[in-house]
Specification:
Layout: E1 5-8, H1 15-26, E2 30-32, H2 33-43, H3 48-55, H4 60-67, H5 71-81, E3 86-88, H6 99-111, E4 114-119, H7 124-137, H8 143-157, H9 160-165, E5 168-171, H10 177-187
Parallel strand pairs: 1-3, 1-4, 2-3, 4-5
Length: about 190
Amino acid sequence: MKLPLILIGPMYVGKSTLGNLIAKKFSLPFVSVDEMSDSYYLAMGVEEEELKKKKNSDNFLDFINLVRPYEVKIAAQIVYEYSDSVISFGAGHSYTSDSKDMSLLMEIKASTPNIFLLLPSNESDKSRKILDERIDKDVEFSRELRESKKYLNIQFIESKSNREFAHHIIYTENKYPEDCVAEIIRLLA
């Protein structure tokens, strides 16, 4: 298997769940770009106070607008630094309409043959409905925050950049995580 193996897709689709399972199966490190991003944002000049404030706000869109210019660059840096790993991008790390960011994603794609886009269904409306239900179950977050995530997920689900970046699309609806892992393993380069 050629590494890194990269999982992309909208929020609540199961990137971390599947990534952890694959990493354990092959005794590889698992890296979540979302969990590592803060130190990269700070290194790229985002003010720590502003980052904390926006990240902890109920308006998730404020946070996304703050970090969006850095998302693809951070993902590229992590792919370079953790090239021996299973990597789960955050939903926004492969979502872009910027031509420079898209070029950077295509550079990663050219050197990384195992990039998988995870979606619940091949139908956008069905994917949105499934993910909306998962977001609504996450009651630790305010209603406003859950609605912000639903709004953003529509963009992530319909993203052209995600589809162009991925080598394969895995539809997860009505499948156990282990079934999705087996499907990914069958497709590995």
